[in-house]
Write a structure and sequence with these properties.
This protein is of the alpha/beta class and 463 residues long. It is built from 18 helices and 13 strands.
Length: 463
């Protein structure tokens, strides 16, 4: 047994030891640092790594612990480290080799039985250690708080119940951790096996939606080969998770996997006719409906479920229309991306925005979603955008209405609720500002460019 005050000290811990990280060292064993600690523990062939804090971890850490055969244990924050260390030492001295021998017997028995499933590993552990272990969906269920060890099970990176031991001794505690790890792996494999068909369809649809024109036909055949119906009406809803720099990559991937499963569950439970598929493009999650046109995609329910699952995360959602066949699917995906951009620009997180609410013709919508549109908008409107804040918003909105009304000061005034002289005054200032970028409002081509640029900029602003 060894008390470790810094993760860097793990490399000097003797082989076969149980490393107890101090509260100070445990506070740094998060995310990537926990992965480093487990890798080092594996290199030193440590028996276990015990860390203060809640019983949570990442998919990467679980896999590292499994691969290195290091038991990853948690220490309750109320437990004094000195008392724990001396208590373990006394127990081992009083029963030389007993604790570790029973734990090693359990490790071998559980490893041998893992291929046969959950019941097999439970029976093997009970026979090896002489203690009863039970599966519980939550603590407090089935007879009150446990008398012995209680260890959380993590399946596919998510909490999935508890292993509860009958006896409160160290061999049983170590075995409970071994059982939790084995059952977590068994369930993770089952989840992944069930997910494979949906993932194959998701991969094929992602390839179809990102294929170049010359490769669309081949990508469509691959999607049909894995069971995606492409000959009817299709629509796309796009869900985007706002970037959060503080969220580590492993946690983000685990969130993405949970959202992937969640959207299909919600869609299939909606009772709508047709088939549901998912895909991922540019870190955005797409829900794809293949079925009757006019079917309402359950975007609001999806966002509500996502908020319940991840209360601190921020989601934006755009919904495309139903269109026919492969070209229609690609068009709906483009519309959903534009509608999601509108949701971000309008400051409407957690609320689905349908492409119809954007209020622009499809050709214009498609163009506004391109990098060329963003570059043109910035270049043409730079003098007005540079005014900043409300002044920029007022100037660009005035210019857009003036252009929409074909230069009529009277009709522009009616829409802006201004006297036509006030519109005339504003337009004189706007014309003067635009001269700096050589924009002539009397040139029909320039007027069209400006009209589109104004719409693109206003689309990115809060309503």
């Amino acid at each position: 047994m060894a008390i470790v005050d810094a993760i860097a000290d793990l490399g000097r811990t003797r082989e076969g030891a149980v490393a107890l990280l101090t509260p100070s060292a445990s506070s740094g064993a998060l995310g990537y640092q926990l992965d480093v600690a487990l890798a080092t523990a594996g290199e030193r062939r440590l028996a276990a790594l015990a860390i203060y804090g809640a019983a949570t971890t990442s998919v990467t850490a679980i896999r590292l612990a499994d691969r290195t055969r290091v038991a990853l244990l948690t220490i309750d924050a109320s437990v004094d480290l000195t008392d724990l260390a001396f208590g373990l030492a006394r127990l081992i001295r009083a029963d030389p080799g007993g604790v570790m021998n029973r734990a090693l017997d359990a490790m071998r028995a559980v490893a041998a039985a893992e291929a046969d499933g959950t019941e097999a590993v439970l029976e093997a552990a009970i026979a090896a250690v002489g203690s009863t272990f039970a599966l519980r969906p939550r603590l407090g269920a089935g007879g009150g708080p446990p008398a012995g060890a209680a260890v959380p099970i993590v399946s596919d990176g998510r909490p999935d119940g508890w292993i509860v031991g009958e006896r409160d001794d160290h061999a049983a505690t170590l075995t409970a951790h071994l059982l939790a790890g084995a059952i977590g792996r068994i369930r993770t494999q089952a989840i992944k096996a069930a997910r494979r068909p949906a993932q194959a369809r998701a991969d094929a649809l992602g390839g179809l939606l990102t294929a170049r024109p010359a490769g669309v036909a081949r990508a469509a055949e691959r999607a049909r080969d894995v069971g995606v119906r492409l000959d009817g009406e299709l629509a796309v809803a796009r869900i985007e998770l706002r970037s959060e720099p503080d969220r580590d990559l492993v946690t983000r991937r685990a969130m993405d996997e949970e959202l992937d499963d969640l959207v299909l569950e919600v869609a299939e439970d909606s009772g709508a006719e047709g088939e549901w598929h998912r895909a991922r493009i540019d870190d955005a999650l797409l829900l794809i409906h293949a079925g009757p046109a006019g079917t309402e995609l359950p975007a609001a329910r999806l966002l509500s479920a996502a908020r319940d699952a991840f209360p601190t995360a921020t989601f934006f959602c755009g919904v495309g229309g139903h269109h026919h066949g492969v070209p229609g699917l690609r068009e709906s995906a483009t519309q959903a991306a534009t509608a999601a951009a509108a949701a971000r620009g309008w400051g409407r997180p957690g609320t689905p925005v349908h492409i119809d609410a954007v209020g622009l013709p499809p050709l214009v919508v498609d163009w506004l979603g391109t990098p060329a549109a963003q570059d043109s908008t910035e270049r043409l409107l730079r003098p007005l955008i540079g005014q900043g804040g409300a002044r920029a918003d007022t100037a660009i909105r005035t210019l857009q209405v003036y252009l929409d009304e074909r230069g009529s000061l009277a009709r522009a005034g009616e829409r802006l609720h201004l006297h036509k002289n006030a519109v005339s005054y504003r337009m004189k200032r706007i014309r003067a500002a635009l001269e700096d970028v050589d924009v002539d409002l009397d040139d029909p081509d320039r007027r069209l460019e400006l009209q589109l640029a104004c719409r693109a900029w206003l689309l990115s602003r809060s309503r």
